[in-house]
Amino acid sequence: MKMKKLAAMALAGTLAAAPAMAELVIPDLSYRTGPYAAGGTPFSDGYQDYFNLLNARDGGIGGEPIRIVECETGYNTEKGVECYESTKGEGALIYQPLSTGITYQIIPKATVDEIPIHTMGYGRTSAANGEVFNWVFNYPANYWDAASVMVNYLLEENGGDLSGKKIALIYHNSAYGKEPIRTLEELSAMHGFELSQLAVDHPGQEQKSQWLQIRRERPDYVLMWGWGVMNQVAVQEASNIGFPMENFIGNWWAGAEHDVTPAGAGADGYKSLNMNRIDANLPVFDEIRTLVHEAGNAAGDGSNVGSVLYTRGMYAAMLAAEAIAKAQEIHGVSDVTAAMVRDGMANLEITEARMAELGMSQIGPEFSVSCENHGGSGLGIVQQWNAADAQWVALTDYIAPDDSVIDPLIAEDSAAFAAENNIEPGCL
Amino acid sequence: MLYREAGDFKTSYVADNQTFPLKLDRIGFWVTMAVAWLVIPFVINDYWASSLLVPFLIYAIAAIGLNILTGYCGQVSLGTGGFMAVGAYACYKLMTSFPDVNIMIHIVLAGGITAVVGAAFGLPSLRIKGFYLAVATLAAQFFLVWLFNKVSWFYNYSASGQISAPERLVAGVAVTGPSTPAWAQYLICLFFVTVCAIIARNLTRGTIGRSWMAIRDMDIAAEIIGVNPLKAKLTAFAVSSFFVGIAGALFFAVYLGAVEVGEAFGIQKSFLVLFMIIIGGLGSIFGSFAGAAFLVLLPVALKWLGVDVMGWPTDLVAHFQLVIVGALIMFFLIKEPHGLAQLWRLTKEKLRLWPFPH
């Protein structure tokens, strides 16, 4: 296999009489095993399929072929570190670990190694402050945006007044689940709702006591920060205790098809956020089916095309590819380095025209990244599960978060990180 | 022929009592030390350090600690993960509260704090034995993880509940934090492993070790011949937790740099270290190293073989890894219940007789 590849490369080199072909190396720290595989698999399929599509259709990005290096992390931080260390030497251009725990782990390492990380809607929220986190990007939105979007949505539903309402947060007892608490506390003081917090331990299969408490306290709304098997169990438990599903809102990692289908009709009406639109009829999916799947290059079994997390994985790959293209444009070379990709990310601009051109019109909001702001627009939509038709229906247009609450929190948290690590904030 | 006592004369009690009575063993030991201290630091890179050698060394300390408690003193413990967490959080609090004090001192102090906590959780061992004690230590595991999750003072009120190690220097070289060179990371772990192993080896050969083993073999008989069970059991818990605490502190500060208690120090960690000493060999320092090496290196080797050499899908390899490691554990428990250390012991005995087995 390797010999063949080498021979092919040598042949191509002599035929084209060009310098040895460089590759754009994209590591995919995926997890297709363990309690979080249900979410990790479709995301990784979408991520890889899009890069394979670029290889098949355009010969890579800017003429440079893409090589994906997959590494199984099992959502485990120790394995994540091992994957990071084993892939970075191959010339990795950008990391997308899809795990808040692993993100925290590799932020300092990648900063020293000068490899950019894109943590799309997860990871360390204060990385939105690009002057402190030069190498970390979390556009198009982050957890604190999500918390604020949820509260803004509820405000809208309640005529702008949440005072006296009881809101419970059920969260994965990890760095991931704890992220929104600070923002929600701030918002609860601001809008006068009462916030109660219910932690669910890894992996999240055991939630009886939490839902018993919800049944006793009867909160008006339940918000959820869940992932993996925790989501399915929570939706099932909510339906078991007869909690009104339309008052149960998950974040964007708790709103995929596999989270709600096990509860059957009981899940009908469950709401969740989304940072990208879902439209199974996007032209890009047809291209993936014909150019990637029919050519036998599907990353998984090919069954996930068009699902929520597949779409998001593909969206993440698109953002990465656009950043690489931007980097090629800025530096005028096609064989970019990790540092150049960082420049591409810091100057990324996503417009509707470009998304339509790529066959994924309206998939995400329009946004632009700058050296100071790595967080993007922070917009989110609210979607609702329709169990009869087995599909997610978008209820709203993009809702904006309350930046007046989030910006000071980001400034505070990133300043604390900068002080802890002796970082002088500034643009690179 | 080569591996035997003949010709190796001992002329003093000190010489007669040494750890390695055979000359070849001594040479082997010093060669290993020379390679570990003088060769590996110059050739090590990031991947070898953080994927293989550093975790191996840290787990070896934890395994030595648990082996003292379970292998030498016969007290089954499922609280290793919790005690490692105590070491890690103690180290974190010390590092952030006293940034000017050397990190080496903090790591030792973290071990000391863990020893106190471990001895406290060892108190029930005076009344309960066997499986019941295992359940009591299981309570320690869950309580400690819950505590470090619940009380935000332990993680300095950070929003995510994670602790992350700031940069600390030893002799002008960073040993924690992201800019740590691979060799420094390796050497600090190697230093603690060497010291811990020497201490453990000598403790187990002396009075305390003998009283532990007396308690393990038959506690009533030990009590009758004058071994104080309170002292023996509590020292076993304290010494064991001291080592486990050092392992936890290194695991957090040097190896991972940032941890989340539920994930890094959960019940799986307790089982992992327990498997290490069972596979390696109960009541053997060498067994602790062998077990740690087996369970750290095997998954990485299988992954390398499956993904990089054979080119199989990563999920398939991850599943195979579980199957193979599980099957090997069963194989060892059936074929060699005394672990890798016993295989080594048998090999040595055979070597002594070679080439005339009768």
CATH architecture of the largest domain in chain A: 3-Layer(aba) Sandwich
Measure the end-to-end span of chain A.
Answer: 41 Å
Helical/strand content category of chain A:
alpha/beta
Oligomer: heterodimer
Order of strands, widest sheet of chain B:
1-4
Uncertain stretches of 5 or more adjacent residues of chain B: none
* CATH fold-level assignment of the largest domain in chain A: Rossmann fold
Work out the strand percent of chain B.
under 5%
Helix content of chain B: over 70%
| Helix coverage percent of chain A | 40-55%
Largest sheet of chain B: 2 strands, antiparallel
Q: What is the number of domains of chain B?
A: 2
What would you say the CATH architecture of the largest domain in chain B is?
Orthogonal Bundle
What is the strand tally of chain B?
A: 4
Q: Percent of residues of chain A in beta strands?
A: 5-15%
Q: Radius of gyration of chain A in whole Å, from Cα?
A: 21 Å
Kindly provide the name of the CATH class of the largest domain in chain B: Mainly Alpha
The chain-level structural class of chain B is mainly alpha
